[in-house]
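lol ok so funny story. i was supposed to be doing the assay writeup but got distracted and ended up predicting the structure for this chain instead. priorities right. anyway since i did it might as well share w the group, maybe its usefull for someone
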Amino acid sequence: MQRARRLREQVRATRSDLTLRREADMMAVYLGVTLLVALNVTHDESPPPLPELLLIIWGTTVGLAVTHWFAIALAAHLVRDPHLHHTPGEMLFSQIVMAVVLALVASVVVVIAPTREEVLTARVAVAVFIGALVTSEASANGTGLRQALAVGTAALVVALALATLKLALK
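and the output, tada:
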């Protein structure tokens, strides 16, 4: 019971503390674009088996978030910043929360999608996730709904373009 309450408090802090929220949002967009690249590597005509596809989703999102935390923790150890208000552990938690949410969204879509369309639907879900996150944050910052939707749509398009470009440069 105590552990569950502490976990809820940490999740709330991730969304209410602006620094942690920015870190979580940045990680969600970064992981979303990276996941789009990973999903673009597979061929729609012969998608990987479902367990392998889920491994790609979870390995890309949570694996990269943990790798990013390692880099933050190492950098914080090497370069001491007296103005740093959060521990690497707090940063890790905020980033892992978004990585798990993104992985869950993509996983649910993949599991319910018809076979052979699961990779495409996962790509769409990830792109929509990025657009929805940006739209939501823009609205929370006082941007009008129409403009927030425009910014979210632009983020969705840029994320897809970056993923496509990264794959093309491979």
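The chain has one domain: 2-168. The chain has six helices and no strands.
back to the writeup now i swear
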